[in-house]
Amino acid sequence: MVLLADDPLAKIDVPHFVREAGHDLLGVETLPSGLRFRIRKG
Prior knowledge:
alpha+beta; 3-stranded antiparallel sheet; 45% strand
């Protein structure tokens, strides 16, 4: 799954949520419009 976020705090919140939900964070990319998270469902 790809999640796009424009909230700067997502850089902290999303990885925490992904771990707590038992999923894998595959990567985070900074874009001009925000952040792109790559997540694998656990």
